[in-house]
Design brief:
Mean pLDDT: 85
Low-confidence stretches: none
Number of helices: 3
Helix content: over 70%
Order of helices and strands: HHEEH
Oligomer: single chain
Distance between the termini: 42 Å
Shape: flat
């Protein structure tokens, strides 16, 4: 079985792998520190952690919306 035949059978896996590679590239390019200010609260963290946290937050919000729509 060739690579393209396997890719056709597992389209979701190939798409997920491509998305994972893109996320890793984005995270690797944003390793510098940034100061985050929210109202009276301020802290310094790497952009990687901030971006990764926002991705996880977006995923959780999407799952909550999906759960609410199914009800």
């Amino acid at each position: 079985m060739g690579f393209f035949q396997i890719a056709k059978r597992h389209k979701a896996l190939v798409g997920l792998l491509i998305l994972l590679i893109i996320v890793i590239i984005i995270l690797a390019q944003n390793r510098d520190y940034v100061q985050i200010k929210i109202l009276f609260w301020s802290f310094s963290a790497q952009k990687v952690l901030f971006i990764l946290g926002l991705m996880v937050f977006g995923y959780l919000v999407g799952k909550l919306i999906e759960f609410a729509v199914k009800k």
